[in-house]
Amino acid sequence: MSKKIIIIGSGFGGLGAAIRLAAQGHRVEIYEKRDRLGGRAYVYHLQGFKFDGGPTVITAPFLFDDLFRLAGRRREDYFELVPLDPFYRIFDASGRSFEYNGDAAFTLGQIDRWNPADKPGYEAFIRSTRAIFQKGFVELADKPFLHLTDMLRVAPDLVRLQSQKSVYAYISQFIRDDFLRQVFSFHPLLVGGNPFDASSIYAMIHYLEREWGVHYALGGTGAIVEGLGRLFRELGGTVRLSCGVTEILVRGRRATGVRLEDGSTQTADIVVSNADVAFTYRNLIPEQYRRKFTNRKIDRMKYSMSLFVLYFGTRRRYAGGPLAHHNILLGERYQGLLDDIFNKKLLAGDFSLYLHMPTLTDPSMAPPGCELFYVLSPVPHLGSGIDWTRAAQLYQDRIIDFLEERYLPGLRENLVVTHHIDPLHFQNTLNSHLGAAFSFQPLLTQSAWFRPHNRSEDFDNLYFAGAGTHPGAGLPGVLSSAKIVADLVAGEAG
Ligand SMILES: Cc1cc2nc3c(=O)[nH]c(=O)nc-3n(C[C@H](O)[C@H](O)[C@H](O)COP(=O)(O)OP(=O)(O)OC[C@H]3O[C@@H](n4cnc5c(N)ncnc54)[C@H](O)[C@@H]3O)c2cc1C
User: Fold this and answer.
1) Radius of gyration (Cα) for the chain, nearest Å?
2) How far is CA 11 from CA 231, 247, 478, in A?
3) 14 CA closest ligand 1 atom index
4) What angle do CA 274, 279, 281 make, to 5 degrees?
5) Are 335 and 171 spatial neighbours (Cβ–Cβ below 8 Å)?
6) Dist. CA 197–CA 128, nearest whole Å
7) Residues with beta carbon inside 6 Å of ligand 1?
8) How does pLDDT run across 169-203, given as a tens digit for each residue?
9) β-strand pairing of 238-240 with 27-31
10) I want to staple 79 with a disulfide (CB 3.0 to 4.6 A). Which of 103, 183, 227, 361 is the partner?
């Protein structure tokens, strides 16, 4: 039977759930507080440059294809994905680089240049992460963990796969070279985790990249958002932009609708929140109605780091230089820096950066003869007490100096546009608790059944799709959460 379903938020989790539920025949409405779809994948159009605000590394493209296929369409008719090679170029503090792609022989050749003794270890690492990938991604990422028994069933596998180890400790069993350990352990940072305490389950991200490649959408990630928005509208879905939800209306164990910023209310048979889970419980549902997710519980959970992202365009090109499309610029410190960010919550004097240079693949993102970049620096979340209204400009200047000195000569005099986001943006614009960029930290104790469930433990017809629920942050994670929500709704409607 067709139901009226309200989706709060239009990140990839919200869009994925909206499309799947609309394709099931439900009447689906998206309410988004910002003026465009996409959530963290918001696009900034500045002086002829088109900056993707968030995700740039597109993996597991079949998850997008599935959305179009179940609606009887072809993804290729909406946007084009091109594979990238290399996946990343990773620089050590001295500027020496390493790169890898999906070709095992090529990657082994790169390892040979750094530390030939690690080649057998890398091959053993791949063999062992295949099992983690099979269990953790293929079998469990798109299945709900609603009951303790779901968790108990997989517990022996988690023990067998050494999930209690951190990603770094896991890698270190196979790889001895200090720099190569960093190269094959940084992946939890892509989903908000510290490689030194994220469960080794996340070591499989490297395997996932090899399996399906790293892709770029022509026109940027914004082209994917546009394609999904178009598909949703074609399926009869309704989008209300600049229309924030201020409350989820509840009666007993049921959500009955939402209140909007203008004070009006909308009834619904089902509510799906794609807004930050901690924010949803803390700010959209009065505490007296919540038994499990009390403010105290929410405050005691651990949150991912935040990010400082600087978007910039230059009047000259830098193609032909040392940089690739995706670059990771590692600094002198690895564990110490991560400890500052995640545990001590200090804004360190040094940094490790991700540098995105999409105009190498797609010059149409910038005016002719120009180059477009974004540089991302993990920073502590707002639990640090750092006053970003004062710290941001200085931090931006330091990053520009660093890039100019080592990678982009003449950067400052060639800058035509800059824009930045910092933890305050995550808190105030995206409604993320503590300004965390990836919601709850991906610790074993906050994964699967231990993560807030895809169907609320407090309200029977309230669902969650997005980074804060199972399986977690990153596009493959949030698109999988959308599938879980749609499957649960289908199961209950059927
Ligand atoms: C800078 C950056 C780079 C990243 N890079 C990558 C990458 O390369 N690859 C990758 O896979 N992942 C990447 N990630 C992670 C990935 O982008 C996120 O995990 C994912 O996009 C989160 O999607 P989501 O569905 O949880 O929703 P979000 O994108 O968090 O969207 C939630 C939406 O809800 C809206 N909302 C909140 N409150 C309300 C309300 N009260 N009423 C109405 N609307 C509301 C918000 O405005 C927002 O639009 C990156 C993240 C960031 C921040």
Assistant:
1) 22
2) 15, 19, 9
3) 25
4) 90
5) no
6) 19
7) 8-14, 31-34, 39-41, 54-57, 244-245, 274-275, 307, 309, 376, 430-431, 437-438, 466-467, 473-475, 478
8) 999 999 999 999 999 999 999 999 999 999 999 99
9) parallel
10) 227
